[in-house]
Amino acid sequence: MTKPHMSSCAHPRRRRRATLASLTSVVILGLAVPAGAQAVTVYAASSLREAFPAVAGTPTYNFAGSNQLQLQIERGAPADVFASASPREAQALFNEGRCSRPVTFATNTLVLLVPKSNPGHLRSVYSLRGGGHRIAVGSPAVPIGDYTRKLLRRLGLSSILTRNTVSSEPNVGAIVAKVALGSADAGFTYLTDGRTAPGRVRAIRLPRYAQPPVRYQMCAVRRPGVDAKGASSFIARVRSSAGRAVLARYGFGLPPRG
Amino acid sequence: MHTDLDTAAISRARFLGLGAISGVTALGLLARPSTAPAAVPHPTGDDEGYLQVGLTGERILASFYSRAAHAPGFTAGERRRLAATGSLRRENVRRILMALAETPASDLAGLVVDIPRSALHTRGRVLRLGQELEGTLQGAYVRGLGGTADPATRILLARLLASCAQQLQALQSMAGMPSPSGLPGVGGLESAGRTFDRYLRTPASP
Fold it and tell me: What is the pTM of this model?
């Protein structure tokens, strides 16, 4: 008899404690994670792989070549934010009514990446004129490939793409990997990518006058069930002073505040 | 001693120098196949490289002449000439931009020309820098005459070379130097790029 009595007295207390505990954890979680941030899904260019998680750790990220991500979003992928390494992809989605007006949030410059040991003995981009080297270049459809071809035309060096053994890569991460592993004597990447494999690669500067303007653009995706609030919150965070400081720390250039 | 080119007598050496430039220009013009239309440049392949380095050099020189016109140590006539040359270089920039308009890489990437003040403090420094820039650009244009595939682009480069050579001789004349006789030297795009890069800067992020 005692047991039931005791338990009948203890149950409401336990229940109250349990309720209080769950309410507390909900409040704590609610404070720790801004509304919608947990659900937001960001599709971003490979070159943002290091910087974006440092700007905001909570979103689910999908990093790949900007053109691939554009295609996935066009086919209905569950992205909330799209960040591309050139205006072309974001503007295309905007023109199709699939995302908000894109905003430029970062800039970059191109470098020639070589393995630390520099087996090709390359001192400048002009060293590639002689031919006989293995170079990793982005495919023409991906921003890094398009920028590289623009740069080479401006340098009058398009011929190096025929004089050397060229591998066409789907994104900038693949170029860095090839150079870092020594599968290529050199690769054209962004300045920021040289920092992702320190100790294994070295960046050779390319003439400033020939640099194409590399602009990163971002937009909120428009689709049924999109986390619009989370998307605009993420975009605001990237464009905030704190977000810009992180991007600058990772070597990106910053556009004027707009 | 600071002779204004407008009133200077033409020496034998300078006459020969101008003749050599005209010869190279004419060769560039004659190298065009007779069947090709000459009107609008359509730079193909690496032709764009010569125009791009030309565009960069002309932009830097336009800025240089505009500022040199206010530098100390020049006569009123020389200042007028320097300012007029600045306008001429801006016109050259426009001509090259028009030639590049049909190619995708004509954007200037937001770079700004940044010539240190110290390089324009005295007449001597202004003239030295001007000769360095003009000489570098002239060499790149000469290289372009032999390397371009598009005939109309080659004609444009020949005209730009003639303009460049004339300004280089004017600066040499102001510096009291004898004009070089013979053909202008061929320069590389690599060395031209290195020289011009020193005077370009990406605007600081706010």
Answer: 0.78
